[in-house]
Specification:
By secondary structure, this protein is of the alpha+beta class. The chain contains 3 helices and 4 strands, in the order E-H-E-E-H-E-H.
Length: 113
């Protein structure tokens, strides 16, 4: 297996279920993601522009390959409402071989018109 074929997860947060569903649906439709999990009900506490904030957010986990990670991040950033969204690639140490194969089979480089 080549390095670019290795499955990875990409972690992000969104301000609403609707914004995460919009971004996640587009990633799946484009073939950049095999699957997107959207987990509502998270509370984030952080400092932004010198002020402490506490907000409700949703987690989005994108299942893709290392070779598509930069494209996923670029597309998610383009659709994201935040100025500085959390978008981090999480390498996978292992997992169920049939599941990891499925991620590779479901993802592809988008075709340019």
């Amino acid at each position: 297996m080549q390095q670019n074929d290795k499955p990875v997860f990409i972690y992000s947060t969104f301000p609403s279920k609707e914004s995460a569903e919009g971004a996640g649906g587009r990633l799946v439709d484009q073939g950049l993601a095999a699957c997107v999990n959207i987990l509502p009900g998270m509370t984030s506490i952080y400092i932004w522009e010198g002020k402490r904030h506490q907000d409700s957010e949703v987690v989005m986990i994108v299942k893709t390959t290392a070779g598509l990670a930069d494209r996923v991040i670029a597309e998610a950033r383009r659709m994201h409402p935040y100025d500085n969204p959390a978008l981090v690639v999480l390498p996978l140490a292992g997992g169920s071989a049939p599941f990891l194969d499925w991620i590779r089979q479901q993802t592809r480089e988008p075709q340019t018109p």
